[in-house]
Give the backbone structure.
Amino acid sequence: MIEQARSSMRFENDGSSNQVVYVRVRVQKAEGAQAWGQLVFSYSSANEKIHADYVRVHKPDGTVVTAGADAIQDLSSPIEREAPAYSDIRQIHITVPGLTAGDILEYEIRTDTTSPLVPGEFFTQWNSSQEIITLDETLELNLPQGREVHVKTASGVSGPEERADGDRRILTWHSSFTKRPSETEEENILKILREVGGKQPDVQISTFKSWQDVGRWYVDLEQPRAEVTDSIRAKADEIVKGQRTKLGKAKAIFEYVETNIRYVSLSFGLGRFQPHSAPDVLASQYGDCKDKATLFQALLAAEKIESFPVLINSQHKIDPDVPSPLQFDHLISLVLLDGTQYWADTTAGAAPFGLLLSTLRDSQALVMEPKGKSELENTPADPPFPAATSVSVEGTVDSLGRFQGKLSLSVMGELAVYLRGMLRTVPQSNWSQVADGVAKQQFGGTPKVSDFHFSGMEDVDAPLVFEVEFSAPSFLDLSKKDLALGVPSGVLVLPSVVAPDKNSAKPLELGGIRDQLESWKIEFPAQVKVSVPVPVHITRDYGEYESTYQLDGQNAHLERHLIIRQSKVPPALYNGVKAFSSVVTADEGQKLVLTNTTPGMGSELNEMSADDLFDAARTAESARNFTEAARLYAAAAEKDPDHENVWNALGHAYNMLNEFDKAVPALEKAIAKNP
């Protein structure tokens, strides 16, 4: 529990500042002592100095233990180990002496700027505690009197007390967090945050007068670093060799930067705002979002393709009232080709040129023209093409209920970006585990993969295709006469909408435009008669769903097709969207009705391996058909007395049948094999 937290910041007209943070914590449990036993503070050595004024522990008996100089270490940040160019991002680690439950920890940390981030300007953000119980929390801002400053307090946060102190203007905010919200209250909070586009900082200040000024400042920082040097021009010519159009050249350059320049994930502004120079990024082959975008811009410029840097926030909406660099956490690019805009994020990893991931779509962003205006614009609400996903399963069920077949999964869009990214980071020796996971997700149960193949890995403009051959030994329990077979829905993603408030004008989010298709072709054994469900077809302006169920002899063909044409619809359509989703959900629940004309297994047992018998027994046991399970386990044990777990499973089946005279010997054999 934090008894007191105080953050005091002083800003000067030249942009310099200092901050003093005081915290007093009552440690109530051993877990708390462990959590607070090591304090870590990050800073940028390029323009900051940090100092621990004191760190001390108050014991219940009144004694005070103070951390000495040997308890404080100034270390490089973990990011430097993978990216030495960011050596100015450092941390101080403080080992708190003898902290145990019942103690009170207090510390004061001072941070001074050695050179302003932006000469002549200052800005900051602050959030009150919403995670740890905090009895008394204070923010004090000490500002030059007479300086024009944008000051904004978020809705629901108490405004500041204000006083004058000579030539200084003092603003003070007080808050406390004494009770965690209930689940209902938390749901209401999340609903409000969704309505407003994410949580804004509790307090924001900035001396930037306009977004034009913010843009001009960043362009002045970035432009010298995007200079087209001989090395940049030579590399650009190499990348675009063979490309005859500007679009082809832009795609080739984008793919090079996205794929070959390793992304170092640092939020915009962490460490420094100015990117490294394009030649340095090209030489080191790594960079953060600023660095990759700067190299991308320089390579494009070498081919006379116009592009602009774009600042954006991936977490919440921009507040247009407070022009500040801290409103952004990411940098992307806007490319102009023959009057057409292409938004490009070189950090996405495996995205096609022009595709922004959903966290960046339909968001305000600051587009900065190097020789012109800088203003907030909206990124596209929809991707340049619908996300397309299709899965097809084709196979045969034999007279023992075993399924043998092939599965093909084809994806384009955001899912393909994530899958390609995962496959590029996972060693090929582990791809079999990925294949097992995909087959299990799409087919259900525990399919056994025998062969698999990924195609379209390198061509991000083409579908990523996964093909696998697999078997499912326990697909159907043919010991029964009457069966119902549900087909798992592996790719259909239904619109999930939250009921809007009565007066809300916020559109309903349908999850992006998409085209999703799943198809099953199953051949059943002659002993099984099949009845298929009634097909469904529903059409709305925003989407369409159609299913078909056909039977040709012993071959059943099922197909479900979902198309979402609009990513957002008016809130008045809430009931209609819910009804649309309900129709699809109900259809997904429809099953094939099967009648087995020869239930049970007789002579077929001789054809089955011990593994097949064991799997068939497990299927029967899952259906609580313990008589059939015991018969199959016994057959498996007879065929392979050393089969793992068979005696234990047989004993359990007999036990469920109250046949204890048979259960005991089986379990004794299990114990003998695994004492």
Remarks:
- Residues 192-196 have pLDDT under 50 and may be disordered.
- The first helix runs from residue 30 to 36.
- The chain has four domains: 2-206, 211-378, 387-596, 603-673.
